[in-house]
Amino acid sequence: MSDTAEQDERAEQNERRPGEVAGEVAGAEPAEGPVEGSAEERSRRLRERRVAAHRNARRVLAGPGFGTTLRERLALLDGAAELYDLDEPSDMYGNGVVEALEEKVAALLGTEAAAFFPTGTMAQQVALRCWAGRTGSPVVALHGLSHPEMHERNAFSLVSGLRPVRVTSAPRLPTAAEVRDFEEPFGALMLELPLREPGFVLPTWEELTDVVEAARERDAVVHFDGARLWETTVHFGRPLTEIAGLADSVYVSFYKSLKGYGGAALAGPRTLTEEAKAWRHRYGGAVFQQFPTVLSALAGLERELPRLPEYVTHARVVAAALREGFAEAGLPWARVQPEEPHTHEFQVWLPYEAEVVGEAAVRHGEETGTMLFSRGWLTPGPGLAVTEVSVDEAGLRWTADDVKAAVADFAARLEG
C-alpha cells in the first residue's frame, strides 16, 4: 500500500508514490485538485473503494493495520497496565516511560543504550551526523534504493550537511567487493535491512558479515537502517543481538512491523546515544509527552515481536501458493519477489497496467468479501504492475488452498 494509511509504513505522512496509475506524472500536482476523469481522480476513487472493501471484507490476507478508526487504534492500549505501571508519573521530555522503552530496546538489541525518536528520518540523520563528527567525514555510502534516497527529499544533504554516495542501485544489497572497491572515501556505510524497494530483500549472513568487514577495512563505521530488523532473524538464523552486534549503530521502527502509533529508536554506544539526544532536541524531537506512542511501542514489542518468526514462515507458504495459483489460472506471466520471501513481506508482479490490476483487486474484495491484495499497485514500467503483500496474524488463518482459491477468483476478474 503505497498511497493509503491502511497497513504499511508508507502511511508515514500518508505519502503517495508517483506512477501508481498508468499515465500519472511523477511529482505533478494539479493547481485546483484532481480533474474529473483524470488519472489522479481515478486513482483517488479506486483508493477509496479499496479502503472500503478492505474494511468490509469478511476475510483479508493482511490485518487492517494503520487504516482503522481512532477507536480501533486506541484499543491497542487495552491492557497497557500489564506493560508499564500506569500509576507512575507521566513522561516529560523523554524521561519515565520513554526511558523504560529505551532500556528495553537496548536489551533486545544487545547495545549499551538506546534513544527514542519521534521519527526514523530524524533518528538516522542524527546518528549519521554524530558519526560524521567522530570520523571527520560527512560522506555516507548507501544504496541507491534506500529510504533516504527514495523518500526523504534529500534530507541528508539539505538538513544535516551529509553527502550521500550510492555504492550500487542494483535490486540487492551491496556486495563486499563493491564496498571495498568503491572509488570515493566515506566515513559511514548505511545498510537497509531488509531493503524494501526490490522486495524486502536481505543478503545471506555470510554476505552481510563480508560487507561489514569490507567497510571496517576502509575505517568506516557501519549503521543499520533496521526499520524492519525485527523480522530478519528467520532469514539470518541468528538472534537480534547477534545481528545488531555487527553494526556500530542501529535504527529500529516501532510502527512498521510492530504496529505501534509511531516512533523509532537509535541503539548503540552510550556516548553516541547521549550525543544523539542533544541533537534530538536541536532537531525538534524533544517532545513534551510521548506516552501514548511509547506505550504502543511496548505493546508491539510484547505482542507482535514474538510472532514475527511465525509470520515470516507462513509468508513462504502464501508466496508458494500465489505462484501455484497464478500458474493454474493460466496468467501469461507472474512473479513473486523474492521467490521465497526473506521476511513476512514480499512483492507480486503481474503483466498488466496498475489501473487494470487495481480495479480487479478491488472488485474481487467488493464482490466476494475476500481481500487478497489490500495495497495499491504501482506501474514500474509499461504493461507491468507491482504490489506488496504482507502476512500477519490475519494471514495465518489462510491455508495454501485458500490462497489458490482466492487467486482463481481474482484472476477471473482480471481476465474479464
Summarize it:
The protein has 416 residues and is of the alpha/beta class.
Relevant terms:
disordered N terminus, alpha/beta, 416 residues, globular
Description:
The chain has helices at residues 39-56, 70-74, 97-109, 120-135, 147-151, 155-160, 176-180, 205-217, 233-236, 240-244, 270-282, 291-303, 308-329, 354-368, 400-415; strands at residues 59-60, 113-117, 139-143, 163-168, 188-192, 221-225, 249-253, 264-268, 335-337, 345-350, 370-371, 385-390. With 416 residues, the chain is α/β, with parallel strands linked by helices. A hairpin with a 7-residue loop joins strand 9 and strand 10 (345-350). It is globular, with a radius of gyration of 21 Å. The two termini are 24 Å apart.
Spell out the blueprint of helices and strands.
Layout: H1 39-56, E1 59-60, H2 70-74, H3 97-109, E2 113-117, H4 120-135, E3 139-143, H5 147-151, H6 155-160, E4 163-168, H7 176-180, E5 188-192, H8 205-217, E6 221-225, H9 233-236, H10 240-244, E7 249-253, E8 264-268, H11 270-282, H12 291-303, H13 308-329, E9 335-337, E10 345-350, H14 354-368, E11 370-371, E12 385-390, H15 400-415
Parallel strand pairs: 1-11, 3-4, 3-5, 5-6, 6-7
Antiparallel strand pairs: 2-8, 7-8, 9-10, 10-12
Shape: globular
> What percent strand?
5-15%
Range of helix content: 40-55%
Instruction: Give the integer mean of the pLDDT values.
Output: 91
Q: In this structure, how is the largest beta sheet organized? A: 7 strands, mixed
H/I helix tally: 15
Q: Could you give the order of the helices and strands?
A: HEHHEHEHHEHEHEHHEEHHHEEHEEH
Instruction: Report how far apart the termini are.
Output: 24 Å
Number of DSSP E strands: 12
Structural class: alpha/beta
The residue ranges in which pLDDT falls below 50 over 5 or more consecutive positions are 1-31
The strand line-up of the biggest sheet is 2-8-7-6-5-3-4
Radius of gyration: 21 Å
